[in-house]
Amino acid sequence: MPLNEAKATKTIAILGEDKHELDRIKKSISMHCRLKKDSHIFARGIYAGYAILLLEIGHQEEDIDYKISHLIMHYQIDFAIFIGFVGALKEDIAAGDVVIPLEFRSLAFSEERYYASPGLVSLAKRLTGKSGLTARVTKINLTVDRVYFKDDKIKLTRAKPEIFSLDMVSFFVAKAFYNHQIDFIVIKGVSDGINFYLRDFDFLFKAKYQISLVRLLLYCVRYPREIIRLCQFIQGGRKATKNNIAFLKDFLKAV
After folding, report:
1. Residue 198, Cα to own-chain centre: how many angstroms?
2. Between β-strands 11-16 and 79-88, what pairing exists: parallel, antiparallel or unpaired?
3. Whole-prediction pTM value?
4. How many C-beta neighbours within 10 Å does residue 97 have?
5. Maximal C-alpha separation, the chain
6. Which of 10, 16, 75, 102 could anchor a disulfide with 21, C-beta 3.0 to 4.6 Å?
7. Within 10 Å of residue 139's Cβ, how many Cβ atoms?
């Protein structure tokens, strides 16, 4: 299907950690697109008058830096949006909420700080009161190397009360765009609140943090007392995905 990208006023890259996230975005914004089999671009097309590139970046620092460098080398990007999930570190941030962090830090690289582009954050902040969603601009997102549960989160909150959310990727995305001098913003759905706990998370989400029906059933057999908690977690993740994409669409229309 031919794309009228020449008439687009801007080129926006939307990054996700895996193809499942990007496929949901592609379907939700109904953009005319074609898959790119010869590059890291998952899809490309037009939405709200802008040329859109969907890029799968994975979970590893080396892959993220390489794929973003490849993107910038081959495409003239006006700015980038990184979407996905975070865990909350505040009692008043619930699963399903949307957060837009201002600052990005890493537990492993404690001296480094990177910041989302002020103009994009200001636009997102104006939309938070109009979107009909529970969305907010927050202060600091911390990138860690594993999933944090209730006890971990409470301990971290006491030691670093300035941290609002956690993930395992955003710091490296922010660093890459900063190094390439490309404006960016991070828009994240909250998948789990501060009291999140599952007894055997690693078993349940063994393959690239994607849950399978077989593992879901086996988990329920192994830990029947966790079925309600598991259902709440899955429901929260679905709500986070839905709200994140809804806010993303509002943001693209307002740029």
Report:
1. 21
2. parallel
3. 0.87
4. 25
5. 56
6. 16
7. 12
Which residues make beta-bridge pairs with 47?
50
Whether the CA torsion 131, 139, 160, 241 is positive or negative: it is: positive
**What is the amino acid identity at position 212?**
S
Cβ(128)–Cβ(135) under 8 Å? Answer: yes
Cβ distance 56 to 17 under 8 Å?
A: yes
Give CA torsion, residues 38, 39, 42, 45, to 10 deg: -80
Total tally of structural domains belonging to the chain: 1
pLDDT bin (cut points 50, 70, 90) of residue 216 is: confident
Tell me if 105 sits within 8 A of 186, measured CB to CB. Answer: no
φ/ψ of 62, rounded to 5, equals -65, -40
- Per residue in 197-207, pLDDT tens? 777 766 666 65
Nearest to 166 by CA among 181, 151, 147, 182: 147
Range of the domain at 242: 5-254
Residue 160 sits in a domain of what CATH number?
A: 3.40.50.1580
- Tokens 């010869």 correspond to 38
